[in-house]
Design brief:
SKP1-like_dim_sf, about 5% strand, elongated, Potassium Channel Kv1.1, Chain A, 3-stranded mixed β-sheet, SKP1, ligase, mainly alpha
Length: about 160
């Protein structure tokens, strides 16, 4: 590891053509970007950024903000399917505040974290949605997420478990 005073930088290009400079260690919270950097080495420059075609600038900046805050977290395991991760919907206080965004941004962050392969951020996003629906009736969930009930009146009156 080199002992330079400033961290190594990489550039990411959002789908709306914004080039964003990021510390390499922050960008590498994304397994997708980490693998790309391992493949291409030092060819990533401001004039030749890593394209992130599925993510716009606003969402990419939010994802980078999360990655920057979590830069010193232990690296994620490739297939970390621990029981604690699967069974809890507890979210750290900073992450709760980070996820206090409108629904569209929340779902864009979830999609971006899935695409960029940032499992801890994907978990936080999914837990946030789970907490939004926990304890609510189906009609309340439909209202929360603006989901149209497309069941016919006859189907609505039948039990969900009746064939």
């Amino acid at each position: 590891m080199s002992e330079s005073t400033s961290p190594q930088k990489v550039w990411l290009a959002s789908n709306d053509s914004a080039n964003i400079e990021v510390d390499r260690v922050v960008a590498e919270r994304s397994m997708l970007i980490k693998n790309m950097l391992e493949d291409v080495g030092d060819e990533i420059t401001q004039g030749n950024p890593i394209p992130i075609p599925n993510v716009n600038e606003a969402v990419l900046r939010k994802v980078i903000e999360w990655c920057d805050h979590h830069r010193n977290d232990p690296p994620q395991a490739q297939d970390d399917e621990s029981d604690a991760r699967k069974k809890t919907t507890d979210i750290e206080e900073w992450d709760q505040k980070f996820m206090q965004v409108d629904q569209e941004m929340l779902f864009e962050i979830i999609l971006a974290s899935n695409y960029l392969d940032i499992k801890p951020l994907l978990d936080v996003g999914c837990k946030t949605v789970a907490n939004m629906i926990k304890g609510k009736a189906p009609e309340e969930i439909r209202k929360t997420f603006n989901i149209t009930n497309d069941f016919t009146p006859r189907r609505r009156s039948r039990s969900a478990f009746t064939p």
